[in-house]
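User: Can you recover a sequence for this backbone? Please restate the input before giving your answer.

Assistant: Of course. Working from this structure:
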């Protein structure tokens, strides 16, 4: 079924950290950092509301990296060593990779501290992006042998249980939308990416394992009717390996009978590199990353509308959301642009969405 809860405007959680927050982080005083975080999160939530964004986040201001929400709250992660060809093909920086434990143990909640101030600050749907269990288990692994895969999937299964419990708790607290981020998928879904990885790993087996792990985190949830959960393939801009398009059989493996309500992916200017939306089944909301976070210069509204019009006409407005193609700062100290440039990009997302949905958003 189509998504009746119309979160037509998306970004991907991570926002450029204000200079005051970065200064407090570098100073090393925990009390000062906590106060700076509270102030920055409240300001970011109100800024997103003023921009007209239909769902808001805390900007991931408490995270050092996108993955830190799990690495910092689940015991057992270690620095990754040796080659990680899949993470390399996906463009994941080494600083963000960890070797996952066989028996991960949560040390309390993961994202409760992130969502509480946002829920209190604004009357808007609140969303959270979490790293998926498949991503966490595979990013720091070579995935080169049957033993590597067995180890990764044992860890992924345990992480899926931890993440399922967190998603359940977030939904009960009033969070409207959780996106599970797994930027390892694009090299496994694209023609060029699969060819490049064939010498290093069993591409089909790795994809099957990731799909099973990520589905396990969301299947069987008991959540409010209007709660939504998505799968986010983006990271920090254009997806790697898309120059020759997607492998349809690989996409079918990911999307057939998917438990996810929406799929977030890059939707670039080059038609050959786009997700083949004509092959996507109706009812799955496609959050199309037409606004590029890798380039601070704003796109032309007319160019974005030309790119989107055929998709909206073909699928209908209920199955489409307008988005950036990644977060603005997957690492706290490595923003992709200035705060003002980020504001212009988010305003562009809102402008394009308002063209299609007017006052609905």
């Amino acid at each position: 079924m189509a998504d009746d809860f119309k979160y037509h405007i998306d970004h991907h959680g991570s926002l450029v950290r204000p200079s005051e927050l970065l200064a407090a982080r570098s100073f090393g005083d925990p009390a000062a950092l906590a106060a700076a975080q509270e102030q920055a999160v409240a300001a970011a939530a109100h800024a997103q509301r003023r921009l007209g964004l239909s769902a808001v986040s805390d900007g991931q201001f408490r995270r050092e990296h996108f993955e830190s929400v799990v690495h910092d709250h689940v015991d057992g992660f270690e620095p990754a060593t040796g080659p990680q060809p899949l993470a390399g093909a996906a463009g994941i920086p080494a600083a963000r990779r960890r070797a996952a434990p066989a028996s991960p143990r949560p040390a309390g909640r993961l994202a409760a501290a992130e969502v509480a101030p946002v829920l209190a600050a604004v009357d808007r749907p609140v969303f959270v992006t979490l790293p998926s269990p498949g991503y966490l288990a595979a990013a720091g692994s070579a995935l080169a042998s049957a033993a590597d895969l067995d180890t990764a999937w044992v860890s992924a299964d345990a992480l899926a249980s931890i993440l399922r419990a967190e998603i359940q708790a977030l939904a009960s607290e009033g969070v409207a939308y959780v996106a599970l981020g797994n930027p390892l998928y694009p090299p496994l879904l694209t023609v060029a990416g699969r060819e490049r990885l064939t010498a290093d790993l069993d591409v089909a087996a790795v994809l099957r394992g990731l799909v099973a792990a990520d589905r396990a985190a969301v299947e069987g949830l008991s959540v409010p009717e209007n709660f939504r959960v998505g799968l986010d393939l983006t990271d920090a801009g254009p997806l790697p390996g898309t120059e020759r398009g997607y492998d349809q059989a690989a996409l079918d493996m990911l999307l057939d009978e998917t438990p996810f309500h929406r799929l977030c992916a890059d939707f670039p200017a080059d038609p050959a590199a786009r997700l083949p939306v004509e092959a996507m089944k109706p009812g799955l909301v496609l959050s199309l990353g037409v606004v590029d976070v890798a380039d601070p210069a704003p796109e032309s509204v007319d160019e974005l509308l030309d790119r989107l019009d055929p998709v909206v006409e073909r699928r209908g407005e209920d199955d489409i959301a307008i988005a950036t193609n990644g977060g603005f700062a997957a690492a706290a100290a490595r923003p992709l642009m200035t705060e003002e440039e980020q504001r212009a990009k988010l305003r562009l997302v809102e402008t394009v969405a308002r063209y299609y949905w007017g006052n609905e958003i």
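That completes the design. The chain has 13 helices and eleven strands.
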